[in-house]
Amino acid sequence: xxxxxxxxxxxxxxxxxxxxxxxxxxxxxxxxxxxxxxxxxxxxxxxxxxxxxxxxxxxxxxxxxxxxxxxxxxxxxxxxxxxxxxxxxxxxxxxxxxxxxxxxxxxxxxxxxxxxxxxxxxxxxxxxxxxxxxxxxxxxxxxxxxxxxxxxxxxxxxxxxxxxxxxxxxxxxxxxxxxxxxxxxxxxxxxxxxxxxxxxxxxxxxxxxxxxxxxxxxxxxxxxxxxxxxxxxxxxxxxxxxxxxxxxxxxxxxxxxxxxxxxxxxxxxxxxxxxxxxxxxxxxxxxxxxxxxxxxxxxxxxxxxxxxxxxxxxxxxxxxxxxxxxxxxxxxxxxxxxxxxxxxxxxxxxxxxxxxxxxxxxxxxxxxxxx
Length: 371
Ligand code: XIL
Prior knowledge:
Blueprint: H1 2-25, H2 35-38, E1 44-49, H3 51-54, H4 59-68, E2 71-74, H5 80-83, H6 93-105, E3 108-115, H7 130-147, E4 154-159, H8 172-177, H9 181-192, E5 197-202, H10 208-223, E6 230-233, E7 236-238, H11 244-256, E8 260-269, H12 299-318, E9 323-328, H13 361-368
Parallel strand pairs: 1-2, 1-9, 2-3, 3-4, 4-5, 5-6, 6-8, 7-8, 8-9
Helix pairs in contact: 7-9, 12-13
The chain binds (3S,4R)-3-hydroxy-2-oxopiperidin-4-yl beta-D-xylopyranoside.
């Protein structure tokens, strides 16, 4: 009897304590402030979405996404390798699901991407004739942009066409179609999707030389009488090294051309890296130092990450008349592509939510700007 009462009291006390502490330790999705609501009057807040999220495999994740974001970009499923696997075969299943997801949850979709040198269908490698490349290029843009007209809000028409020095990347498109292929892509997209916003998207295009190349592209498209609505700065940056001055200068210079400015794939990586940017073809070899935070992020790095995000959002707010969208490349740290690139199997912490969708100090700092 004595023993039983003891067990009863300790477990009741434990339960009471848990009820008191738990809400603070792990806030439920509904008690976490909403990013999209906080910045509603300033700019859109987006995320990329993967297959599991689009398929709504976990209702809690769906609820979390719908509460935090009002814009989304498919992480992979609208890339040509997935959408257009064979010369005359398209697979629209997942992309259609994404459109339905957006409609259901009031999330605007940014199509990503019509023309990119990476994640191309394998059959492209076998094509040697410029005519066939042109046929692929034209049919792909017309078919895809046409199908999603009125269904997606915008398109990254061309992705990553520039080298770091501002010259054009020697992609299969440049090699076979010549310098005008970018303008041509926008012309075709405009014809197929007259009501959809059309963007050029790249990484490191806040850096002066690459920015100059990007400005040339925008001017050239406009000079041809073709429409371009915005420019995307991907924003794959590194903790403690975010190039704030270049970012601000880029917002001003791009906006002066009359295009919207967006941050389209934001993440701030915390792991060692020996190069800057986001060239998916570039890889690093692992060594003993390359994955230091498997058991958690040291507080100093956590605070630096929070300060970087705070300063970035301060800058975005300062230029909210020019910045129309900020999209994170992932919902939480566990989703991030940076756990697998440029080295596979690392534990990275580049986003505002941890692996359990709990807000990190960076989230608190960003939200506090609106309080
Ligand atoms: C990445 C995806 O996140 C990965 O899942 C995929 O394996 C490779 O591509 N720039 C872009 C994005 O425009 O499409 C890339 O996404 C990241 C760099």
